[in-house]
Amino acid sequence: MDTKKLYADQIIDPSIGFHYAFIRSTKLTSELHTHDFYEFFITFGGAVIHYVNGQSQRLEEGSFVWIRPHDAHYYERIHTECQILNVAFSSEMFEALTLYASTRETIQQFHSNDLPQVVHMHELDRQHLKLRLEKLALSPVTIDGESMLQFKLILLEIWTKYQRHRLQVKSPLPQWLKALEETLQHKEHFSAGIERLFELSGKNREYVSRSFRKHFGLTPTQWLNRIKLEYASNLIQFTDEEITQIALDCGFENLSHFYHLFKNQFQCAPAKYRKLMKKPVIPEYQ
């Protein structure tokens, strides 16, 4: 099968820095191809076979995959139709962001793996991300580069959550840690704090701490704060609740600590994040 090459200058809108597509049928996807840009895609509504670099991957609903320029790939339906959210962006943008947000070793590992890593994305996160990207793609382009800035913030958030920390995993997660990770996605558990994490693990604290550092490259507290901050960012964007109340609801009793952690993770203060992410799709006229 011949390999087609896709080019950024033919696909990506330079005014916003990315190309968004929600593909409702694998019949509408490209044949075997590579690119001179990066992309990520997320599967909705069913499973699909992903052929990449001469191998096949069965991707279930909710699979998140980051595609590098050298990856040669295409899709093939199984039984039910699968929908695919696809976002393409320039190599220059990706490399600048990852250089800022990652170590040299993490970036090298990302590029050297034979296959792109597959990560499961929870349904709520999928729907929120789809809404944010659609909103941004449909918004009027601003002359001050705000649309591109918003996309960079989203991209940085995705890299931090769905790629960078996963690359630090040196071995498969043990079953108890998989179960703990899943359980702690629920607000009633993560907002209860670090003691709830240790309680739910059923293991001693020292063993849990060693396991988190081994598999996630983070301490349990750092990992839990990341989960809490991701939930807080969704509330900040999609609700009008006071930011101080959001922080408390997410389990942050020290507000200055919350603001410090939020700015470190999202590169701006919560109020600015809300302003950037709540830009209306249709402008309001006086």
From TrEMBL:
Superkingdom: Bacteria
UniProt key word DNA-binding: yes
Domain (HTH araC/xylS-type) ranges: 174-276
SUPFAM superfamilies reported in the protein's UniProt record: Homeodomain-like (SSF46689), Regulatory protein AraC (SSF51215)
InterPro entries: AraC-bd, Homeodomain-like_sf, HTH-like, HTH_AraC, HTH_AraC-typ_CS, RmlC-like_jellyroll, Tscrpt_reg_AraC-type_HTH
Species of origin: Paenibacillus thalictri
One Gene Ontology molecular-function label: DNA-binding transcription factor activity
Leader peptide range in chain numbering: none
Protein name: Helix-turn-helix domain-containing protein
Keywords of this entry: DNA-binding, Transcription, Transcription regulation
PANTHER family hit by this protein: ARAC-FAMILY TRANSCRIPTIONAL REGULATOR, HTH-TYPE TRANSCRIPTIONAL ACTIVATOR RHAS
Claim: DNA-binding is one of the keywords in the record: yes
PROSITE patterns associated with the record: HTH_ARAC_FAMILY_1, HTH_ARAC_FAMILY_2
